[in-house]
Amino acid sequence: MKQTVGDPRNVIAMLMAITLTALTSTMTGCASLGIFGDGEEARLSQGSNLPREGAMDRVRLERLFESQVEKVTGGPGGLRSMVDGYNIWLITDPLNDRMRLMVPIAQIDGVEPRFLNALLEANIHSTLDARYGVSEGTVYAVYLHPISTLDEADFTSAFQQTLNLARTLGTSFSSGKLQFGK
């Protein structure tokens, strides 16, 4: 069967490839550049892009993450914990002022094809600030944000939204109570 540019399978494949590229680039970049250790300190010592007074930073963000969970593994720039049977990662890139909360949910080959469209629709209608994404064959719930403009309330909300997306895969595909357009 010939596929055209407007074919929904091509659109889904393209969106999955874009999501894969975005997720992989940050994870790979952080690891390969050695940002997990002293990235923030290196940026601050260069005197560029100094954060505003009282802005969120990697250390404070990691403390917030630790306050949400019972046990943490990993180190600066890459923390992991288990919540309700889900792995949740906090990945930070202070040099680029970015953070990610990520929860691997399922292998893409184990997800029913009809759910792929539902994932994309959920990203518009029911996911609020967290989103579904696919990287290296895994479906994730993910939240991305600049570190410096994040506050404690937003982080707490992001943490819960990301876990809610994992919990509701295959049912409501929702990060919370609010839904748009449906």
What does the average pLDDT come to? Answer: 80
Helix percentage: 40-55%
Query: What is the total number of structural domains?
Result: 1
- Helix-strand category: alpha+beta
Tally of DSSP helical segments: 5
List keywords for this structure.
six-stranded antiparallel β-sheet; globular; 182 residues; alpha+beta; disordered N terminus; 23% strand; Yope Regulator, Chain: A
Task: Explain what the structure shows.
The chain has 182 residues and is α+β, with helices and mostly antiparallel strands. The protein has a single domain, classed as 2-Layer Sandwich (Yope Regulator, Chain: A), CATH 3.30.1460. It has five helices and six strands; from the N terminus they run αααββββαββα. Helix 3 packs across helix 5. The N terminus is likely disordered.
Layout of secondary structure:
Elements: H1 8-33, H2 35-46, H3 58-68, E1 73-75, E2 78-83, E3 86-93, E4 98-107, H4 113-125, E5 131-135, E6 138-146, H5 152-167
Antiparallel strand pairs: 1-2, 2-3, 3-4, 4-6, 5-6
Give me a quick take on this structure.
The chain has 182 residues and is an alpha+beta fold.
